[in-house]
Amino acid sequence: MFSTDGSIKNNEESKPNKKKAEVITVASGKGGVGKTLFSINLAIESASLGKKTLVLDADLGLANVHIMTGIYPESDLMDVINDKKTIEEVVIEGPGGIHIIPGASGIFKLSNISHQKRHQLVEKLSQLEKDYDVIVIDTEAGISHNVLKFISIADKAIIVTTPDLTALSDAYAIIKVIRSKKSNDNISVVVNRVSSSNEGDLVYKKISMAAQKFLNYELKSYGYILEDGITVKESIQTRRPIVIQYQKTKVGTSMKTVFCNVFNVEPKKIVEPNIILNRFSMLLENIRTKESV
Ligand SMILES: Nc1ncnc2c1ncn2[C@@H]1O[C@H](COP(=O)(O)OP(=O)(O)O)[C@@H](O)[C@H]1O
Ligand SMILES: [Mg+2]
Prior knowledge:
Layout: H1 11-14, E1 22-27, H2 35-48, E2 53-57, H3 65-69, H4 77-81, E3 92-93, E4 99-101, H5 115-126, E5 134-138, H6 145-152, E6 156-161, H7 165-180, E7 187-194, H8 197-215, E8 220-226, H9 229-238, H10 242-245, H11 250-263, H12 273-292
Parallel strand pairs: 1-5, 1-6, 2-4, 2-5, 6-7, 7-8
Antiparallel strand pairs: 3-4
Helix pairs in contact: 2-11, 7-8
The protein binds adenosine-5'-diphosphate (ADP) and magnesium ion.
Residues 28, 31-37, 192-193, 225, 227-229, 232, 236, 251 line the site of adenosine-5'-diphosphate.
């Protein structure tokens, strides 16, 4: 749903004959709340649902989508901003069949790009819209012009927070700015790193009540993701995505539920390998019993 003037546009009107990519922008008030981990796994889940999916690493200050996915790109978004490469040229393949546009780490903050460059970047991105079903934009923390721009072009804006009080108040602050600037009307919250479902519900209640009382806004929830340091660390170190290799873990099952909410699909039953084996041996047992009769 790209519109280069930053306004929210109905895609059916703006591009009646073209395929429409669903743009999902992931943002947060505070850094380190899990946006990148969330964005990569959301994209992989999307690809596994048969949707052609692209992740744009729009965090040029601390770009790390490529680090988390173990990719060492030759060119990145900065080359596109500086007109050294076309946007198609910097797209690379990532895990689980996703495509990635890497950000450039630590060289130059995307926040420093001019209004004109930002406008051009969104225009270039809009050229990819017809090639994908879903575009996930992983942003930098906080409320920069870029983040607001990427939120304004999104069909779904997802604000990630943790139960931590500063993360939560920063999440509220970003939602307040989005609403005051009328940048997006489809904002949902995901509470990451919770110790229990109760904590997840409580945190969502707090922020949604504040949004309702002070912003007169019905904030949606896609749910919560459980704290699971061991699995997350292992997944990042081994570069095996949580939604593929760690489906049965605390973080894996809770992430899946959140993603089903995002894509509005029924959760698939995960069949454990030993259950399949048990069924197989029961089948063999039946055959043997019948044969011996
Ligand atoms: N559910 C979780 N359980 C445990 N650790 C997590 C979880 N989600 C994220 N983390 C940790 O938080 C760190 C920051 O995550 P990251 O996705 O880089 O955050 P952001 O992109 O918001 O800065 C990760 O390295 C990971 O160790
Ligand atoms: Mg990040």
